[in-house]
Design brief:
The protein is an all-alpha fold. It contains six helices and no strands. It has helices spanning about 20-30, 35-45, 55-65, 65-70, 80-90, 105-120.
Amino acid sequence: QVDLGKMSGPPPCNMLTDTERRECKLLLDKLSTEDIISLTDTVCNRMVSTDSREEALEAILMYSESAKQLLRRKKVRREHIFQYLWGTQPDVGAITRVPADHEVSVVTEQIEIDGRGKSV
């Protein structure tokens, strides 16, 4: 959990759903620690100081307005999206030819599918 005492700004007003948090964390786990720290600074507008990768991940998830917004960040590259999709959907061969502008839609649809499947 991120130490709220380290935050220099107000807490975020929009939050990811539990499913979005879980699935975005799976995707973010594909990024290097350096990219995670950089992404934390960007997403949190340098308002949060973190001491570890886990704190940084929690801050990113806490301050992200939506899964779509998070997936459009430069640090979340095509290779990370495909690694995530491969882990959630072994038959990803058909998805590998998706145009770059549709990648975010594919991942958000996968998050919705996972959420429906796990809520039953």
